[in-house]
């Protein structure tokens, strides 16, 4: 069945995950004192585990419990901003090529509301048919309801939609469970040491988006 729509994560796919990493590190240091080395240890261990919430792990490691998680994220969300260097140019090029090929474009991303402003600033917003930003729609991945909303709004069967993300646990697995095709992008918060199962989990596995339109067309 031919792919007629593509949904994209934002962090690690269209923009660097460094924006969130900078924001959460700064937020932690406004609540306590955290060294870059100790932060990086938790961060890397999380990437390798590909399970659970990084935000919760950081709270428990540096703030002692989850009691201040809401406060931490309120601070982080104010600083969770993409700069010009964070945008992956191959992401924009990929969106344009897929749109020109007649595909609908969706976003399924755990991001603050200001991410929409950045998409507008960089000329991506006009390419998007469904804007699924967690802070706007009220769902967070891997909640199946988030993916179901995208399927509904794109008005296509799940089998005709391909989801593109950089996490197995929050992107590939929940999309597959609903019958969507999947792409695993191995950058950003992707597991740096993937297993054979990880490498075989998605329909397409890539390290960037340069050849993705052609790979999708060949499915």
Automatic annotation (TrEMBL):
UniProt organism field: Candidatus Nanopelagicus limnae
Gene3D superfamilies in alphabetical order: 1.10.150.520, HAD superfamily/HAD-like
Top-level division of the source organism's lineage: Bacteria
GO molecular function terms listed in the Swiss-Prot or TrEMBL record: hydrolase activity
Full protein name: Putative hydrolase of the HAD superfamily
InterPro entries documented for this protein: HAD-like_sf, HAD-SF_hydro_IA, HAD_sf, S-2-haloacid_dehalogenase
Keywords noted in UniProt: Hydrolase
Pfam families named in the record: Hydrolase
């Amino acid at each position: 069945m031919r792919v007629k729509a593509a949904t994209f994560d934002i962090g690690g796919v269209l923009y660097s995950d460094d924006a969130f990493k900078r924001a959460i590190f700064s937020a932690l240091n406004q609540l306590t004192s955290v060294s870059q080395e100790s932060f990086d240890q938790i961060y890397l261990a999380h990437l390798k585990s590909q399970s659970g919430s990084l935000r919760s792990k950081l709270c428990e490691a540096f703030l002692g419990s989850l009691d201040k998680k809401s406060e931490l994220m309120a601070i982080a969300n104010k600083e969770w901003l993409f700069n010009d260097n964070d945008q992956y140019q191959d992401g924009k090029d990929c969106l344009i090529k897929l749109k020109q090929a007649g595909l609908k474009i969706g976003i399924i991303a755990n991001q603050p509301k200001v991410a929409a402003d950045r998409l507008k600033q960089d000329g991506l917003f006009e390419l998007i048919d469904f804007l699924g930003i967690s802070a706007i729609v009220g769902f967070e991945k891997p909640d199946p309801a988030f993916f179901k909303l995208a399927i509904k709004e794109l008005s296509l069967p799940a089998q005709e939609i391909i989801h593109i993300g950089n996490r197995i646990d929050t992107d590939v697995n929940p999309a597959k469970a609903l019958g969507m095709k999947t792409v695993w992008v191995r950058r950003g918060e992707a597991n740096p040491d993937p297993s054979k199962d990880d490498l075989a989990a998605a329909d397409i596995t890539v390290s960037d988006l340069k050849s993705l339109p052609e790979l999708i067309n060949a499915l």
